[in-house]
Design a protein that fits this description.
By secondary structure, this protein is α/β, with parallel strands linked by helices. It is built from ten helices and 13 strands. The strands form two sheets. A seven-stranded parallel beta sheet has the order 3-2-4-1-5-6-7, sandwiched between helices. A six-stranded antiparallel beta sheet has the order 8-9-13-10-11-12.
Length: 318
Amino acid sequence: MPLAVDSSTGSVPVTILTGTLGAGKTTLLNRLLSSSEGSRYAVVVNEFGEIGIDADLVETRSGDLLELVTGCFCCQAKDDFAFALRRLLPRLSEIDGILVETSGLSDPLPVSRTLLEDFVIASACHLSAIVAVVDTSRLCRSELTAVEYNQIAVADRIVLSKTDLSSELMLASAEKRIQSINPTAEVLNCVRCSDYSDLLREAYLRDTGMMIAAPAEDHGRAISSISLTLDGEVNEERFMEWLGPLVRGGTMEVLRSKGIIAIAGYEKRFVIHTVGELVDGAPERAWKEDEQRYSRMVFIGKRLNTDRLRTEFEACAA
């Protein structure tokens, strides 16, 4: 399944592939490339250290483009990452999407933020999905680092790797732990995945309708997820006056949010993404004539107040 370039804006989708060291990101990247028949991609590989080998392991095909950035996307290599994306801009008409493989030491949020805060990049590209690769055995047996935890918490899809080396009990335990950290994520077993290109489809919301707090062992991080649905349309001005200050900080810390919003007066539904304090929104497809219009938001963050968020969201109704 090719990535979907937005036909109305020409915006190219960017998929961020994250995961800890040794989880299997490059293996998955090669499977994605080999299974995407008829599509061409730009691949941006982030390696930590002056001399790396990951780029040499990426099996690009004729027509694919490869960019290598050394350092860490979270900090010193952030500007290099933006520069690598800018180098690709003149050739966007040649590709169907951009795949970014981060270093195992990188937090995906700063990477996502680059797509929103650089005006030139944001006008040509958009965040399609964050896909986290998680080592099943490590997830079951080890305490997660803060970066590993964040990789899971903000992902749209989570691919469990090395599942052929894990028992059914371990698989169930891994899925349960992921569910406790990020209940809105789609969890996939790499061994049972028959169509890897399906990982590249645009990430829309899954209606979990629930909020699950982190388990006892992770209370120090206190990341939770809340899904809210509002039947009908929202008032654009009230919605933006609420969302902007909310993500900029306060008693609640919103790490990431995403939504499908029906805005009064518009025939198209809007897709909203926030990363940190940055907000990005764009019209998507038109609402169908017989389709019930709704607005839905998912928030991932710390100290989230479900009742307050629900009350304030409902107050945005048109």
